[in-house]
C-alpha cells in the first residue's frame, strides 16, 4: 500500500481570521463594515503568505 502524500495546507488560517476580526472592528468603528472586512481579509492573506514564505526558507 503506497504512502499517502502530505497535503500542503493553505498558509495559516489564524492570520486570515485575525485580519477579518480586526477589519470588522475597524469597520464598525469607522462606520463601514464592508470595507473593513475587505481590508482585514487582505491583511490576513498577506500575513499568511509572508509567514508561509518564511517557513519555507
From TrEMBL:
A Pfam family matched in the record: Gly_zipper
Keyword entries, A-Z: Membrane, Transmembrane, Transmembrane helix
Domain Glycine zipper-like: 15-47
Entry keyword Membrane: yes
TM annotation in the entry: 20-47
Lineage: superkingdom: Bacteria
Protein name, entry field: Glycine zipper-like domain-containing protein
Amino acid at each position: 500500500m503506497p504512502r499517502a502524500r502530505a497535503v500542503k495546507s493553505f498558509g495559516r488560517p489564524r492570520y486570515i481570521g485575525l485580519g477579518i476580526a480586526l477589519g470588522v472592528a475597524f469597520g464598525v468603528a469607522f462606520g463601514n463594515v464592508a470595507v473593513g472586512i475587505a481590508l482585514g481579509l487582505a491583511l490576513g492573506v498577506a500575513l499568511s503568505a509572508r509567514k508561509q514564505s518564511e517557513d519555507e526558507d
